Amino acid sequence: MTVEEVAEDAHVRLLAGLGAGGQLVYETVLTRIVEPDLHLVLGTPAFVEGIAAGDQIRVRAGGAFEVVRRGGNICLLVVPESAPRPEDLTPLRDAFDELGGIVELPPDRRFIVITVPAAAGFDAVEAAIDGWTGPRGHHWEYGNVYDPDGNPLNWWD
Questions:
Q1: Phi-psi group of 54: left, alpha or beta (phi > 0 → left; psi -120 to 50 → alpha; rest → beta)
Q2: Confidence (pTM)
Q3: What is the DSSP letter of 81?
């Protein structure tokens, strides 16, 4: 039996960290079950750090997870000063389309998640994101490039 024959989509609740009051914060992430407890991440999460679409993770109790295999995608999170108008997103989408990436955001536009292949190169990714966020004063950060201590994960080497 192949993986495709047994795979099914599932939403898993992953630990995203601690909230302002010290309570645990979770994010529900769309995955495809590869085998029990092994999931292929289908949608890059906004707040769960360390993973992006295409990664395979082993889900642990309490929402913890372990990355088993990287899918080769970089995650970027943009937190705008205010919700951007849809037409303001066109240059951002165009820039990441050229890099093979995808720009996603919820209907309230309070944050933006970008998934882009690491093969596009960090210089190109940073030029694209800085070109859009810089003039607007928006903050952005990588979601799966650094560990909690700020050290590069180097999975792209």
A1: left
A2: 0.91
A3: S
The pLDDT-based confidence of 2 (bands split at 50, 70, 90) is very low
Contacts of 41 by beta carbon, 8 Å cutoff, 6+ apart? 29, 30, 31, 51, 52, 53, 54, 55, 56, 57, 71
118 CB neighbour count, 10 Å cutoff? 18
Q: Beta-strand (E) ranges in the chain?
A: 8-18, 24-35, 38-41, 56-59, 65-69, 73-79, 102-104, 112-117, 139-142
Segments in the chain forming alpha helices (H): 3-6, 90-98, 122-133
Instruction: Please return the burial class of 154, using the count of CB atoms within 10 Å of its CB with bins 0-12, 13-18 and 19+.
Output: exposed
Tokens of 63: 């929402």
CB 12 within 8 A of CB 59: yes
Whether the CA torsion 103, 105, 110, 115 is positive or negative: it is negative
Q: Given its phi and psi angles, is residue 24 left (phi above 0), alpha (psi -120 to 50 degrees) or beta?
A: beta
> Quick one: pLDDT at residue 7?
63
